[in-house]
Amino acid sequence: MSTTATPAKPIASASDANQKAVESSMLSPRFYTTDFAAMDRLDVSSVRTEWDAMMREYEGDNNHDHFQRDEKFAEEVAELMPKLSPEMRQEFLDFLISSLTSEFSGCILYNEIRKNIENPDIKQLMTYMARDESRHAGFINQSLKDFGLGIDMGDLKRTKAYTFFKPKYIYYATYLSEKIGYARYITIFRQLEKHPEKRFHPIFRWFELWCNDEFRHGESFALIMRANPHLLRGLNKLWIRFFILAVYATMYVRDHTRPMLHHAMGLDSDEYDYTVFRITTEISRQVFPIALDTDHPDFRAGLEKLFAISQANELAKARGGVVGKLTQAVCAVRAALTFGRLYLMPVQSSELPQTVRMVPAW
Known about the structure:
3% strand, two-stranded antiparallel sheet, 66% helix, two-stranded parallel sheet, mainly alpha
């Protein structure tokens, strides 16, 4: 693809890093709140056997000692970080801040649900998931501190804008976020496992066990949705379709703003994204009755167009003034029309499997 990313504002200080995390845009991870009373009414009795087995896995906490930096970590940071070009350093910092914000978003949401409900099943689940996401965010923050750019997560919780989502939107979006997080991390880990010379930061050595947490979190929401099958029928299929497309499109545009990051790993941004889409689509058949045809040429062309529009919008923001604002308005209309055409493309239907749980085998 010939379109190139528009340079972002450099992250040069802790203040810049915290501002980047607080930023609210179409591409930045968001913080959410929801209808706690509705979540309190959830019933998972129809998947009790699978649910209890999953709770035992959470209680076993097989990753309890995983998120510890070993001696080799510090040695690799000292050796590898000076070799990064300024441009590559910026893309990597953007990746770390975005990843931390996404992980911390889950931690906050799950913790807030836990504090505001009495349902013992859901309360127990949210306690475990908040624990995991807190570890993930804290581990990333340690790497940011290596650059002198640690995020003040208490301040981030207080100052970042929150978006209200109905519970069913939380289920769809969070399920996809956790599963696509697994697919992203395992794809990077497998690539660097084959090509260790391209591992430019030690954090990637942690990705295999890390992404198994993400996979299990997704399994939790899969069980919730399968226990409440009305969420997967009728008009709700339209919402499922919307969230799949929104998550894929956001990932595609965001990833293509940092092409050097993938190149450094020996990955092509297009190839990486469509590999992640295929893995996520394969996994999500456990719960979603529809899937997008991400290999269709028109689908790929639509995502390329969304990225080009995003870049034009960023240039218009930088230009400012009346012309800049008018150009942003045109970009918004073009993006909505392009998204709409992608949304109306034919989807693939599938029967839901009898057994919900899956194994992270990619």
